[in-house]
Amino acid sequence: MIEVNRQGEVWVFAEQEEGKLSDVPLELLTKARELAGKLNVHVAAVLLGKGVAAIAEKLSAHGADKVYVVDDDKLAHYQTASYMKVVCDLIRKHKPQICLYGATPIGRDLAPTIASAMKCGLTADCTDLQIGDHADPATKENHKNLLLQIRPAFGGNIIATIVNPHRWPQMATVREGVMAMSQADANRKGKIVAVASGLEKFELPVELVESHRRPKKVNLKAARIIVAGGAGVGSKDGFRMLFDLANLLGGAVGGSRAAVDLGFVDHDHQIGQTGTTVRPALYIAVGLSGAVQHRAGMQESAKILAINNDREAPILSIAHYGIVGDLNIVVPKLIKTIRAGAGVK
Description:
The protein is an alpha/beta fold. The protein has 9 helices and 17 strands. It has helices at 23-39, 56-61, 80-94, 105-118, 238-249, 257-261, 292-295, 315-318, 327-339; strands spanning 10-13, 16-17, 20-21, 43-49, 66-71, 98-102, 123-126, 128-135, 142-153, 158-162, 170-174, 191-194, 225-229, 252-255, 282-286, 303-308, 321-324.
């Protein structure tokens, strides 16, 4: 644990693999700028890897005032022990007040390891982050300008706000797609700080022999139109008409966790609290009840069209347009109409 430093920077762990940044640190930089603006401090990104200095400017363009670059052969591939040591050393030296990570496989491994080493708190899978005050009911002490870490709890049935007034840095992970990414500003220049890794005598505990990656079957985040099905679609065959509708509209197919668990559609298509978070221009929800866990992943869609035979289904309460009817009748009619020349603008 480091001492409370209310002038410390707001940090974003800039996750990259093979020299390519994922979207989540760029999304987090947008939120970090908002938080730092309220605290009147700088935003910094922490970039670890081998040959990664070239991508530091992209982090500056997305909002980083400063980028700590640690370039070392031993950081070429992610390993918990080496990355944890480097980040902890940086935290001890520079004393940030907030550290943000993506809730990716790497972030979910690294963030709790660092939190444990630094003896500070960590809130996982946040859906929002704000700056606010907290009055301790036990000590009556009023803490100013804390990180309010907001996330669903108890299976999504409540929204919890978590604070960490005593043990800093305040740390949180945020799922990809939850925060909107700002446009890059090519004219924005941040300070690039080259940092020695300190790993000269560090022995990596694991030797990477081969690496195999399976690309995702669908890029839901990039889709402007998504046709998503739930358990109400009824079968894997039922999802075929959703693929037909999505193909006609130039969109992608998504699914609820229930549909994925039932084997109607692959996990890559899952949307919701335990899947992908999306913000398409049009979201067509077919046979979806609209449980809070699913709504957490799609409620920021610009327009929502819900098709459900239950007029009391929760999805209809957030839909801009609703059709109460049998999806096996409604969807084929939509497909027929679009093939006849109708379109979606």
